[in-house]
Structures are given as structure tokens and as C-alpha cells.
């Protein structure tokens, strides 16, 4: 069995009037099958309202399936007995750095989660140290979170999740509010956790550049998974991506435009290095 | 006419141990009818600056002149200023408070004293402009996805048709097509009506594609105020400020460093494409 396994997963939101009568049902996640292996770095793309956040909230049991099944690390998310276990397995990081930080000192903020679940004090501080070091924020442990930049706050939020020692971290647009530096800091930290600690990563983003380093990508459209594959496979199909209201990294777009103007380039160029080599090759031949 | 900032300094918690100088002697003019991008790393003072422009924050020292009048004059109407200088806040969820999307978007034009018919016209027009589906107009703003909330917040300000439209990171959280649609809509409205647009953005690509002029803020001071080409030439200096250039600008530099005779000043995909095609003799 895969680490995350969704089968025919459906989530319906019910809209009610003042008298609590259901006036409308919205199927936000519609018959989704999704398998993720332990240790993978996964990205989820999709237009606004396509169901990404709704799906993500299932992985942390903030929502439960209306129908279909979801297993996280072998545990059935529809069975209430598993809720706490699954929340321990899969931590969540959200978009707005300011809504996620509670304490007035960085290290206390990171300690908050493990404290809450009754981890012994010695171990808490070990975990705090490990987590803050893992995201490169150890030097800031005694700082006040208000004084940190957005990227630094997000890394503290990630450390807070890390301190719970989850096997998986789900990040819902963690870089949407950050400047270029902050985006890079957060993305580097997440890749590091994935490589060095083997943490499974699920990254939701609207920045196509951030997807390039993933193992596998899912594309959602109106509640369905409509494309899946490696970043190169996904970004080779510029036209289909655009139909789903998405885009490609700027370098891929440039290669695509050059190709349309008759330059003989391969599909799915992802990086500056790749485009440079392809153009040099043409230049030399 | 124009919006002019004269020697503006702003200190949060002035006079206390926590005093922070967020703006440090800013001098800048926003002439009518320009499309201006503002970039700067987190905490550089962008939001503080734009909140001065519609009087939400009052400068610790300095003057703001709008159409020849000092907005800090005793008899100046801030209410009037806010109908002309509209602002979409950085966190749109803080801007939504009515029970339905319709009421939220209609709030501004209603406040401007328009009659019901004109309010409805403005409201539907604005929802259409931002690509918000009309069938969701009776829904509570709190049931919307992140990107949908942002569209509603933008529609609410567009519906007032302000002469100066300020948007503080309006495309964060929008899907790529939504981002292009909103920016194209802003550009199109700008070209049609001649309004002033001030776009605060973390996307170097977006400001390069849409702004006539870019203002770079660093530690509360203006570091550059120039065309996208002239600003992104200094990408090494921008990196020191936590910023960057568009990916294609880096790529043109890669080509040059690899010994190819190209000009490196492209800031958009189209410019880069044309320069490379020229290099290849097409
Ligand atoms: N609490 C809620 N109650 C009712 N409907 C909701 C609720 N939250 C989301 N929805 C609806 O479910 C659909 C999917 O929303 P979701 O938040 O999962 O989208 P998303 O893919 O994360 O979008 P975005 O990119 O804008 O964040 C949308 O149509 C939205 O309006
Ligand atoms: N409400 C506030 N109280 C105290 N300091 C603030 C407040 N808002 C912003 N600041 C500080 O002012 C400076 C500029 O912040 P801001 O204008 O929000 O920057 P930006 O929008 O460029 O990220 C930062 O040092 C920030 O910490
Ligand atoms: Mg979402
Ligand atoms: Mg800001």
C-alpha cells in the first residue's frame, strides 16, 4: 500500500439557509485517485477553486471524505479512532505566516506543538533544536517572531510542524506572500527536509518555477485530477496546461516561444542550464 | 495633476523603545496616468508607503500633495480622498466583511452615494472584470477559495472607479491564468480610462511585463525609480536587497557569459525571444 492512497475520494460542501436547510451542494473534490509513496516530493497545481486546499485538509483530517476512501500511512482517515495518529503523521503549513505563529519567542513557538501532545521536556528541547537547525533558523531561537521576515516566519512555522516529527508535511501555498528571497529560503528548507530527513512533501503552489524540483506533479481542475507526471512530462504540454488555467516556468515559456518561431528545441526544457545547452548545441551544429 | 510625497518619514511606535523607521525621507511623484510597479523585500516599507497615499496612515513628518492640495490641511476631506484613491489591501480576507459577495462589492459605490441602479451596474461590471462567476454573488465571502476572495476584494475597489488605484500584492494566491487576466484587465482599464495604477508586487516578472516605471524600496528608502530595463540592469544590486530580476534577464546574461553576442536588457519573454532570434539570424 502507498503512503498516501486516495480512492474515489469525494468531498461535498453543503450550503445551508438560515433554517439550516441545504440549498446547494458543491462537489469540491470529485472522485480523486491519488497515490503518494513515502519520501516523495509531490506538487499539486490547479486553478483557484479546483479543490487543492480541500484535498489537502483531508490529509490532516481537518475534513473527512463524503465518500470514497483515504488511507494515510495505512490508516483509514474516515475512522475517527485514527484522527490523532494521522494528524501526527501529516503536518500542515498554510499561506499566511502571520496567522501561524503563537508564542512571543521563536523557540517557544516551535515547542508549542510537542508540549501540547505531552512530549517530555528534555525531548521537547532536543526536537526544537533539531527542527530549527533543519530549517536554518537556530540562530534566531531567542528572537521575537514579529521581527522576522515573511520567509523566516514561514520557516519557523515549518520547524513547528517538524517538531511534531511528522512523516509528511503538507504545505498549502507557503510562499504566496513572500518576496523572492523568502520563497527561495522556504523552498530550499523544504527540499532539505525531504532529502536529508526523508520527509514526504506535498506542496501546493501557483508558482510554476517551484514545481521543477518535484518528483511528481498532480494537476487538478474542477475537483478532478486531470494530469499527472514528472515536471518534465507536465511542462512539455504547454497547451493543455493553459487549458487548465495554468502556465509553465518562464524559461520553459521562452523555449516554447522559440520553438514556435522555428528554432529546433526539445519539449519540456525546465532550467536556464538546459536551455543554454540546447542553444549552444544548435549554435555549434 | 499628481500625487506627490515630500520628504515623508514614518515611524511606528514613535518615541518608544520599539520605534521603527519604516519610511525614511521619501520623495516621489506619481504623475496622473502612469502604471507604476513598487518592489522591495518583506519589511522594506511598501505597504506603509501605499497606506499613506489614501490617508490611512499619517506621516510622522513630511507632506502629501494630491492635485495641488495638501491632504494634511485641516479642512481637507479624507473621505473624498478615499473615493478617489482606492486601495486593495495585501490581505483581502481583512477587507471582506459583508454577508454576501454582492453586498461586499456594492459597499464602495453605495458609499459614494450612487443610486441602486448604478450601484448594481457597477457591481456586476466589476465582478465581470475580475472574472468572478455571477452565480456565486449571493454566497458568503467566507465560503470562497483563497483566489476567489482576492477577486472579490479587487472588484470592490474597481467598482468605485478610483482615479488612483493602488493594489498591494493583488495577485498572490491567484492561479496563473487569473493573474494574467487581472493584470491584463488592470492594464486595459488603465489604457481606456487613463487612471493611475500603483502595483506593489513580489513578482519581478509581473512588474516587468506591466509597469511603465518601477520604484525599488529598501529599508524605507527609494533606491531606484526608473524603467523596468534600467532597474533590472542592476540585478546584482537588487539581489543584495533580497530581490531578483525576471528569469529571462538572467538567461540573457547566461548567454552573454557563454560568449554569445546578445544584449542582456530583455525583461520579458517576448523581448528575450526576439533577441535570441536575432542572434540566430532569423
Ligand atoms: N468552507 C467552505 N464552505 C463551502 N464551500 C467551500 C468551502 N471552502 C471551499 N469551498 C468551495 O470548494 C471549492 C474548492 O475550494 P478549495 O479551497 O479547495 O480550492 P483551491 O484549489 O484550494 O483554490 P485556491 O487556489 O483559490 O486556494 C471552491 O468552489 C470553494 O468555493
Ligand atoms: N503595525 C505595525 N506596527 C509596528 N511595525 C510595523 C507595523 N507594520 C509594519 N511595521 C514595520 O515597518 C516596516 C515596514 O513594513 P511594511 O510596510 O509592512 O513592509 P512591506 O510591505 O514592504 O513588507 C517593517 O520593519 C515592519 O516590521
Ligand atoms: Mg487553496
Ligand atoms: Mg506589505
Q: So what's the overall shape of chain A?
A: globular
The whole-angstrom Rg of chain B is 20 Å
- Total domains of chain A: 1
The major pleated sheet of chain B works out as: 6 strands, mixed
Structurally, the number of domains of chain B stands at: 1
Element order of chain A: H for helix, E for strand: EEEHEEHEHHHEHEEEHHHH
The interface involving the most residues is between:
A-B, 46 and 47 residues
- Helix tally of chain A? 10
The CATH homologous superfamily of chain A is named P-loop containing nucleotide triphosphate hydrolases
Name the ligand types: adenosine-5'-triphosphate, adenosine-5'-diphosphate, magnesium ion
Spans where pLDDT lies below 50 across 5 or more residues of chain A: none
**CATH topology heading of chain B:** Rossmann fold
Residue-averaged pLDDT of chain A: 93
SSE layout and pairing:
The complex is a heterodimer of chains A (285) and B (282).
Chain A: E1 4-16, E2 22-36, E3 41-46, H1 52-59, E4 67-72, E5 75-76, H2 83-89, E6 90-93, H3 106-116, H4 121-134, H5 150-162, E7 168-172, H6 180-197, E8 200-204, E9 216-221, E10 224-229, H7 231-236, H8 238-243, H9 250-260, H10 272-284
Parallel strand pairs in A: 3-8, 3-9, 6-7, 7-8
Antiparallel strand pairs in A: 1-2, 1-4, 4-5, 9-10
Chain B: E1 2-12, E2 20-31, E3 35-39, H1 46-53, E4 61-66, E5 69-70, H2 78-84, E6 85-88, H3 101-111, H4 116-129, H5 146-158, E7 164-168, H6 176-193, E8 196-200, H7 204-210, E9 213-218, E10 221-226, H8 228-232, H9 235-240, H10 247-257, H11 269-279
Parallel strand pairs in B: 3-8, 3-9, 6-7, 7-8
Antiparallel strand pairs in B: 1-2, 1-4, 4-5, 9-10
Helix pairs in contact in B: 3-4, 3-5, 4-5
Bound molecules: adenosine-5'-triphosphate (ATP), adenosine-5'-diphosphate and magnesium ion (2 copies).
Residues 12, 20, 22, 40, 42-48 of chain B line the site of adenosine-5'-diphosphate.
